[in-house]
Amino acid sequence: MFVSYKWLQEYVDLTGITAKQLADRITKAGIEVERVEVRNKGIQGVVIGHVLEREQHPNADKLSKCLVDIGEGEPVQIICGAPNVAKGQKVAVAKVGAVLPGNFKIKRAKLRGEESNGMICSLQELGVESKLVPKEYVDGIFVFPSDAPVGADALELLYLDDEVLELSLTPNRADCLSMIGVAYEVAAILGRSVKLPTIELHENNESVHDYISVRVDAQEDNPLYAGRIVKNVKIGPSPLWMQARLMAAGIRPHNNVVDITNYILLEYGQPLHAFDYDRLGSNEIVVRRAKEGETIVTLDDVERTLTEEHLVITNGKEPVALAGVMGGANSEVQDDTTTVFIESAYFTSPVIRQAVKDHGLRSESSTRFEKGIDPARTKEALDRAAALMAEYAGGEIVGGVVEANTLQLKDVVVTITLHRINRVLGTTITKEEVANILTNLQFTFTEDNGTFTITVPSRRRDIAIEEDIIEEVARLYGYDHLPATLPIGEANPGKLTPYQAKRRKVRRYLEDAGLFQAITYSLTNEAKATMFALETAEPIRLALPMSEERSVLRQSLVPHLLEAASYNRARQVENVALYEIGSVYLANGEHELPNEKERLAGVVTGVWHAHVWQGEKKAVDFYVAKGILDGLFALLGLENRLEYKQAKREHLHPGRTADMLLDGKTIGFVGQLHPIVQKQFDLKETYVFELDLEALLNVEVDDIRYTAIPRFPSITRDIALVVDEHVVAGELQKAIIAAGGELLKDVSIFDVYKGDRLPEGKKSIAFSLRYYDPERTLTDEEVTNVHEQVIKAVEQQFGATLRG
Amino acid sequence: MKERLQQLQQEALEKIEQANDLKALNDVRVAYLGKKGPITEVLRGMGALSPEERPIMGALVNDVREAIQRALEAKQATLEQAEVEKKLAAEAIDVTLPGRPIRRGNHHPLTRVIEEIEDLFIGMGYTIAEGPEVEQDYYNFEALNLPKGHPARDMQDSFYITEEILLRTHTSPVQARTMEKHQGRGPVKIICPGKVYRRDNDDATHSHQFTQIEGLVVDENIRMSDLKGTLREFARKMFGEDRDIRFRPSFFPFTEPSVEVDVSCFNCGGHGCGVCKGTGWIEILGAGMVHPNVLEMAGFDSKKYTGFAFGMGPERIAMLKYGIDDIRHFYQNDLRFLQQFNRV
Prior knowledge:
The structure holds two protein chains of two kinds. Chain A is an alpha+beta fold. In chain A, 25% of the residues lie in helices and 30% in strands. Chain A is elongated. At the A-B interface, helix 7, helix 10, helix 12, helix 13 and strand 29 of A face helix 5, strand 1, strand 2, strand 4 and strand 5 of B. Chain A: Its cofactor is Mg(2+).
């Protein structure tokens, strides 16, 4: 909403407060003033001139030589390039020495040999946007009414000495979509009174019912429809002040009748429509829902096909307006219009919103209906419009109003105690202060022993409950005066849940292990949605995606991490180590919320470790990735419950992939990217992993219990076992541990060999076994006994032989 | 004999003095104190002395031996010290060469901001509530006083999956769910961080996926002044002890009264600068008193209970705090961006 500071003074006294100060006060009280536009863009010395003579420039076809009275002694000669300049016009003249926007100084000049002492200005040259200039003057100079006083300040007459406040309204404050509404708000803030327009209505002796009847068939959409007939109007320009105000508010002037409807829309917030009575095609107005497939050509010359969800104004046969949105071309007011039917109605919001949405057509009218107007002013606005048409279009107001009215206006009454106000706000506002605020708001109320009974005016449709009154009091009392306290009451210690606490530790561990935390998008495309997923389900699709790339919810974090790796590689960042903790979404049937499961995934590629000048450089391999995970399981106390199993998974290298099992249940995988996928993402050797984080963090783990520090020496024995090459180290190790019993404390692998010194198809794995008894020093013999059992076990189970 | 011994001592001490490595010193030891050395020889010749002279000479021999011994030890220590120093000197390295790098990743800047906020509120007695990102229309809108047909819930602005299920547009449904779980009994004191989604085109200031942190306190005597005090505390801990906050009236369907909360500019201290666009204030939160409809729908008696709620965007806070100019950085995972948040 654009609020002209100058126009606003019609309704509320702004003495002693500048536009800027007013803007600050309004913002502080709750309606944000986005900006204050100074309409004068640096103009000086532009006055009204009277074109006394106009003749063709002797040396230029497109120029006119004019003699202009500018109210200063002798008339001056001005050369003008506008096609519409003519003798007798009142025009804006930038005198010699004047300044126009952009610091353009007007000097005495010679144009094609003829002297020019100033410049006749178009509105655009005075800084008015082209789209606001009346159509007839868009390509030329603006012509003022003949009564404009010669020598007067043109800026003042055009309201270009004005400042405009641009209000950014929250949806609850539709009341401020009108000058009067803003006036009430400003009056409440300043503690001043509101001056409403006076309406002098002179009706003739005829009856409107002899002209037209009204019937509303869709009462829910249109509880009130009222109209008047104004006859003998003469279409012409509206008064300059009205045009100036419309332009200040961002509306282009057309003619007196249309301008008056727009003026009332801005003044009262009540959209009106003027029909050419003689072009209506009947003597009745019927408001109804459109028929499926019915069409109307609206004022913008677009044919629109309607459905039963749209409301139309008809002449009993065909639509003459798309209710509340735009009039029809067939009944438009034109230059030869003499009798006008003015419609002032209250259309409810849903039906208007539907039309706006379906036709992509938003107008000043529809915006107000969508947000809700004040139906108590509908008829007053109608009267005011009729009175203005009588005054400024020479019309004659036919007696009476036609209306279809099923509106039931109920007063909203709110009762609230001073105690409650102070209890909710934490303030010590007095009874008198509350009363003062309510008075300034011009709310009617009674007060009895601290209890206020307030009748809310119909213009404030946003106020219905106690809290709304509390807000009114608070905002006008001033939030700056609100004390700052802390809640009193039961105090509970705040803390993380065990899951949240563990998740934070996991993050820190992974970061300290060298991975960076990534956050990627949850929405992906159909193909990537299920790639790498630990569990898959029917893809969950958005009903209305913005692009195919972001249309389906992911079931794995890996694809977007690969994209991130790829993104980095494309920017010369070759060494990438990222992890992400985030949700995947598994469908649960169409009407159920999906299962959202938290996953941990990672991607590592490039050089893992380098210390170049010392010649150290280690590329990422499977065991780098696995090492990170081993550390994670150790952190969570799960290293002994976790098992890796060789696995085959889609998109992963068939020989370099493992599933991870926790207590025998698969909870994730780690592996090298399949070369085909690697190429697809434009990556080099890359390893990925994904884990079911919830499974990992929710599992019960024993608390830490101290065990005695070893007091006796341990004994270490190494063995190198030769086995078939398909035997995996993990299985051998498991067997060794099982056979080693109580005394075997640690088993570690220190060498793996495959090659010339062993027979084809064989490999050797060397283990270091540490034996220890917490109670005593072991003898060599005891250890040898156990050790031999271990060897026997692996011989029997794997056909292992000791490497000589 | 006495002269002989004194002469030997003198000779030995001179040779010890002259020895310039451990081997030479050892040669001196063997030469003078060894079994075949001159002092042993002198001892052997003591049998020729009278019983009176013998103890006197014996004591003298011992004195000489001890003097030599002491000199040997002292010299040995000196030589050893020199040897060590020589060895160490040879071992010198260039300490200005780079150390072996420790690989270290770090939090995403959003996590950094979120955890900081979480910790701050945990310190004030809050717990962290989480909830689903794919939500029912009921919890996302209806339970928050946004009934069907409300203009603020245009289908165009949200990612719907079915008519009743959508990607949450804010973390407020977690508040609704938490209140419902409390079955009408306070206190509720939570903050809800999480991802949210809106149907926006991604550009420098919009992202279809972003994060939010909301807070909610419901109890029998919660006042709007408590909201102000709490947020002032938050602003001071987050942005510096001399920060102030101000409330500006606003509108949200789920709170009444509603306010926008500005923090005095942490860049210029409130004098006006580029960061605060010359106003001295930076808008950082939306907040208000929980709307009675929201309380009632979640099963709380709005005559007895009141509450406050607030919400903020970690992206915005991170952008302000670190001077980040494009919201898309948060989701591109460019390591050159992520690595910048690797220290205290």
